[in-house]
């Protein structure tokens, strides 16, 4: 019963610390790269839909009955006399066997609409289905306009996690089947081309080189929203926590991504020209560009884009000091000459340091 004492004892054993959230009667312990939660049996009360809960101590039975879904409303005894005994008061074991996600009580989504997003994410992650009554209750709450991810921070965090996850398409499908009635977001069930694009973005989330990042929710959101007015896109992104500068950079993403794609398909393309264009793209739009090329099977353009990236990573043949030593120029002139060298180097005109020095000497005459 002394949950704080148990958490403290575990932390001492592993030489770590306890992070306590007294208001919610929970404690968190980090062990290695994992995080463990310790919580006492409790009840939760909601003053209004979507509000933070008020927590009060309760019996184990009451605690289980207020859980989100039946499959996570089970407990196992750790006491010596009945170790391993499963306490299942909502039919969670049967629902696990049937591979369904079911709410534990009828008003669950009314009290906390963010649970709709958790239900969709859970079914996608486990490959389960929403129980028919649970689906009906979710649609009812959505149609009532209770799920506002632009204003409800907890719901917004759930939504971002869903978009940045490795089950993105399944989550989009799950939410689409419920009607997509998220207040303030004009989302619809994506058609095949957009769904393929989302699938390519999902693949990028599974790459080992990509660490979890809050920014990885931006590109799927942009794709799902589609080509809206730039002002609308900017306002949505700002409501989702982006700075005005970052939101402004993504506001015309659809046009900028199309222009970059056309440049890659142009017969007159050059590495320096492509480099100049993609350097102007914010990271989410660049990820969309790559995913779009893959989803459309444009392997030549994708190869060329990777080729430009590879060239761009090569060190510049000259430095500002080299230019000073040759011509004694300063300030903007040096920057302009370095930009010329970079352009000619990307395009294969200058291939060595000696060639670059010779070029600068001709400019210094």
Overall description:
It contains 19 helices and 9 strands. A 3-stranded antiparallel β-sheet has the order 1-2-3, covered by helices on one side. A two-stranded antiparallel sheet has the order 4-5. It has a two-stranded antiparallel sheet with strand order 6-7. The longest helix is centred in the last third of the chain and has 15 residues, at 332-346. 30% of the residues are buried. Helix 9 (192-205) crosses helix 15 (283-295). By secondary structure, it is mostly helical. The mean pLDDT is 90. A hairpin with an 8-residue loop joins strand 4 and strand 5 (54-57).
- List unreliable stretches of 5+ residues: none
Q: What is the helix tally?
A: 19
Helical percentage: 40-55%
The mean pLDDT is 90
Largest sheet: 3 strands, antiparallel
Using only C-alpha atoms, the radius of gyration works out to: 27 Å
Secondary-structure element sequence? HEEEEEHEEHEHHEHHHHHHHHHHHHHH
Structural class: mainly alpha
Number of strands: 9
DSSP strand content:
5-15%
How far from one another are the termini? Answer: 85 Å
Gross morphology is elongated
Give the strand line-up of the largest sheet: 1-2-3
In a nutshell, what does this entry contain?
This protein is mainly alpha-helical and 365 residues long. The protein has helices at 3-13, 60-65, 92-98, 108-111, 114-126, 132-143, 153-163, 168-177, 192-205, 218-225, 230-239, 244-250, 253-265, 271-279, 283-295, 299-312, 320-327, 332-346, 353-364; strands at 18-21, 26-31, 34-39, 42-45, 54-57, 74-76, 86-88, 100-101, 129-130. Helix content is 54%, strand content 9%.
């Amino acid at each position: 019963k002394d949950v704080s004492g148990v958490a403290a004892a575990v932390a001492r054993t592993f030489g770590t610390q306890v992070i306590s959230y007294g208001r919610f009667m929970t404690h968190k312990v980090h062990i290695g790269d994992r995080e463990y939660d310790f919580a006492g049996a409790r009840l939760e009360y909601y003053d209004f839909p979507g509000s933070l809960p008020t927590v009060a101590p309760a019996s184990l039975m009451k605690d289980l009955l207020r859980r989100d879904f039946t499959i996570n409303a089970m407990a196992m005894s750790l006491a010596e006399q009945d170790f391993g005994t499963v306490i299942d008061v909502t039919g969670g074991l049967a629902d696990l066997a049937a591979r369904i996600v079911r709410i534990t009580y009828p008003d669950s989504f009314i009290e906390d609409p963010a649970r709709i997003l958790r239900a969709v994410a859970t079914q996608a992650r486990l490959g389960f289905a929403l129980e028919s009554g649970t689906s009906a209750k979710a649609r009812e709450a959505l149609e009532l306009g209770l799920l506002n991810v632009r204003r409800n921070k907890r719901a917004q965090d759930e939504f971002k996690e869903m978009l940045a996850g490795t089950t993105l398409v399944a989550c989009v499908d799950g939410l689409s089947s419920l009607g997509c009635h998220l207040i303030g977001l004009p989302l619809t069930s994506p058609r095949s081309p957009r769904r393929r694009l989302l699938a390519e973005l999902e693949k990028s989330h599974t790459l080992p080189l990509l660490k979890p990042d809050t920014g990885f929710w931006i590109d799927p959101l942009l794709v799902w929203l589609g080509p809206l007015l730039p002002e609308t896109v900017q306002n949505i992104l700002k409501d989702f926590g982006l700075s005005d500068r970052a939101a402004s950079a993504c506001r015309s993403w659809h046009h900028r991504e199309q222009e970059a794609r056309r440049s890659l398909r142009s017969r007159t393309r050059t590495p320096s020209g492509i480099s100049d264009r993609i350097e102007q793209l914010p990271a989410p739009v660049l990820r969309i560009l790559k995913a779009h090329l893959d989803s459309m099977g444009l392997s030549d353009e994708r190869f060329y884009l990777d080729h430009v990236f590879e060239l761009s990573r090569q060190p510049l043949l000259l430095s500002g000091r080299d230019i000073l030593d040759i011509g004694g120029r300063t300030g903007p002139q040096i920057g302009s000459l370095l930009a010329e060298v970079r352009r000619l180097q990307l395009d294969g005109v200058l291939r060595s340091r000696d060639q670059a020095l010779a070029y600068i000497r001709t400019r210094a005459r």
